[in-house]
Write a sequence for this structure.
C-alpha cells in the first residue's frame, strides 16, 4: 500500500514538473530579435488600449517606431506598473516602458535610456470645491497611484502640509476617490491628468507642474545593453526626422487622441467593447478549466494521503494543506511569477504561473474536503470491509470512496465557482482575463462605474448558472 501511494505521489510530481517545464519552454530565456517589453496597461496617454483593444499611446507608439527604425521586434506585455517593474527585475521581461521617471533610487537597480519625455506633478481636485491650493490640505486625505512621481511628491511634502496619503493601483480608482469625496485631492503626472480631464473626468488641475523629471526606457542593470543602445539610437533618429514630434502631438495636442465622442451609455459601452469582453471572458473560463483540472489532481492525491494509515503521509498532507491554504493568493501568484524566476533565471509565462498558483491554492481546499468527505463515512464501514478480508486499498475503492464522493461532489462544484472568481486576482501578473479587461477599458474611457457594473453582471450570470447546477446535482445525489 505504501509503495502504491509513493508511486502516485511520484507520478504527480513528474506531471507537475512536465507542466512547468513545458511552460518554461514556451518562452526562450534569452530574446534575440524579439524583445519582451513590459508596460503599465492603464496609464493614458502613454499606454492604453484603444476601442479596437490594441495598445497605443506615446510609449507604445515610440517603442514600435524605434523598433522599426533599428530593425528589431517587440512583444508588449501589459500589466500593472509594479508588476512591469518586477518583471524586468526577475528577468521575465527584457525592458520596461511605462512613463517611468528616472530617479537615483531606480538607477541603482535599472539602466535607463536617454530621457524621452519631461513631465511634472500636478494637484487636481473637484471644480468649485474648497481645495484649490496645497495649504488647504491639512488634515485631509490625498490619493496617489502606486509607484508614480505623484506618490513620490506626496510623500515628500505630506508632513509639511499635514495631509494623509492613500494609495491606489489604478488611476481611475484614484480619481473616483476624489470625486466621491473620500479624498480631498490627488497628485498625478501632468500629461496624464490633462488627458483624464479631456476624457470627461470632473476634476480640475489647481497647481503648476512641479518635481519635473524625465521618463526613460529601462532594462535590468547590467543586462540588455544592446537593446538600450538601439533604443537611444532610434530615439535620436525619431527626433531628427520629426516622428517623435508627430507622436507626442497626436496624444497631447489640443485635438489629440481621445474617446469623448463615443457612446457612454451601458449599451454603447457594451457594443464598443464586446470583443474585448468576450476575449477576457474566454480567458477566464479557459484558465478556470485548466486550473481546476490540475487542482483536482493535486487535491485528490493530497487528500488521500491524509487518510492512509501512515503517519508520514498524513503529516505531509496536513503540511501541504496548511501552507497553500495559508498563503494569500496574491502573494503566491507574485512569488511564482516573479520570485522563482529571480532565483532560477528562467522565465515562467503568465498563464502557466497563474495555473500553478490556482492549482496549489484551490488544490489545498479540494484536499481538505476530500479528507473531510472520506472521514465523514462511518468508521464502521471500513471495519466491516476489513473484517470480511478486503485489503485497505480495495476497501477504500469499493466501500468508502463511493460514499465519500457523494458527499464531496457539491463541494467540487462550489470550488469551481470559487476558482472562477479567484482568476480575477491573477490580473496582477498581467493575465488579460475579465477583470484585467475591465481595467484596460476603464483606462481608455474612465467610465469605472459602468464598466465594473457590466463585468459584475457577467460574473453574476455565470456564477448563478453554476450555483443552479450545484443545487441540481446535490438534489440528485440525495434521491
Amino acid at each position: 500500500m505504501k509503495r502504491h501511494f509513493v508511486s502516485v505521489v511520484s507520478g504527480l510530481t513528474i506531471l507537475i514538473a512536465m507542466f512547468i517545464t513545458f511552460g518554461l519552454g514556451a518562452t526562450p530565456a534569452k530574446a534575440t530579435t524579439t524583445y519582451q517589453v513590459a508596460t503599465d496597461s492603464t496609464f493614458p496617454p502613454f499606454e492604453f488600449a484603444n476601442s479596437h483593444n490594441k495598445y497605443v499611446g506615446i510609449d507604445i507608439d515610440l517603442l514600435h517606431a524605434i523598433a522599426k527604425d533599428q530593425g528589431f521586434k517587440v512583444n508588449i506585455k501589459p500589466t500593472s506598473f509594479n508588476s512591469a517593474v518586477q518583471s524586468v527585475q526577475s528577468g521575465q521581461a527584457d525592458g520596461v516602458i511605462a512613463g517611468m521617471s528616472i530617479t537615483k533610487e531606480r538607477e541603482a537597480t535599472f539602466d535607463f535610456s536617454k530621457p524621452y519625455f519631461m513631465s511634472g506633478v500636478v494637484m487636481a481636485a473637484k471644480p468649485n470645491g474648497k481645495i484649490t491650493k496645497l495649504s488647504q490640505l491639512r488634515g485631509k486625505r490625498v490619493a496617489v497611484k502606486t509607484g508614480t512621481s505623484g506618490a513620490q511628491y506626496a510623500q515628500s511634502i505630506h508632513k509639511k502640509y499635514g495631509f494623509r496619503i492613500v494609495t491606489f493601483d489604478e488611476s481611475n480608482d484614484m480619481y473616483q476617490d476624489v470625486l466621491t469625496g473620500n479624498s480631498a485631492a490627488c497628485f498625478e503626472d501632468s500629461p496624464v491628468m490633462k488627458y483624464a480631464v479631456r476624457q470627461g473626468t470632473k476634476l480640475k488641475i489647481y497647481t503648476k507642474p512641479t518635481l519635473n523629471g524625465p521618463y526613460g526606457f529601462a532594462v535590468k542593470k547590467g543586462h540588455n545593453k544592446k537593446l538600450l543602445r538601439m533604443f537611444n539610437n532610434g530615439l535620436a533618429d525619431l527626433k531628427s526626422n520629426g516622428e517623435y514630434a508627430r507622436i507626442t502631438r497626436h496624444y497631447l495636442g489640443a485635438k489629440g487622441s481621445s474617446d469623448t465622442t463615443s457612446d457612454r451609455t451601458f449599451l454603447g459601452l457594451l457594443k464598443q467593447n464586446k470583443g474585448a469582453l468576450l476575449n477576457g471572458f474566454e480567458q477566464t473560463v479557459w484558465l478556470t478549466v485548466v486550473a481546476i483540472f490540475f487542482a483536482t489532481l493535486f487535491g485528490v492525491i493530497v487528500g488521500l494521503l491524509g487518510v492512509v494509515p501512515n503517519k508520514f503521509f498524513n503529516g505531509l498532507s496536513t503540511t501541504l494543506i496548511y501552507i497553500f491554504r495559508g498563503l494569500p493568493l496574491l502573494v503566491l501568484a507574485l512569488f511564482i511569477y516573479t520570485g522563482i524566476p529571480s532565483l532560477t533565471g528562467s522565465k515562467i509565462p503568465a498563464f502557466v504561473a497563474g495555473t500553478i498558483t490556482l492549482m496549489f491554492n484551490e488544490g489545498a481546499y479540494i484536499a481538505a474536503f476530500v479528507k473531510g468527505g472520506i472521514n465523514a463515512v462511518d468508521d464502521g464501514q471500513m471495519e466491516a470491509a476489513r473484517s470480511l478480508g478486503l485489503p485497505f486499498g480495495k476497501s477504500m475503492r469499493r466501500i468508502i470512496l463511493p460514499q465519500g464522493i457523494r458527499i464531496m461532489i457539491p463541494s467540487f462544484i462550489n470550488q469551481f465557482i470559487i476558482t472562477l472568481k479567484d482568476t480575477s486576482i491573477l490580473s496582477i501578473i498581467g493575465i488579460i482575463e475579465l477583470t484585467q479587461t475591465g481595467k484596460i477599458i476603464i483606462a481608455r474611457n474612465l467610465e469605472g462605474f459602468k464598466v465594473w457594473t457590466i463585468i459584475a453582471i457577467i460574473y453574476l450570470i455565470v456564477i448563478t448558472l453554476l450555483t443552479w447546477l450545484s443545487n441540481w446535482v446535490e438534489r440528485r445525489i440525495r434521491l
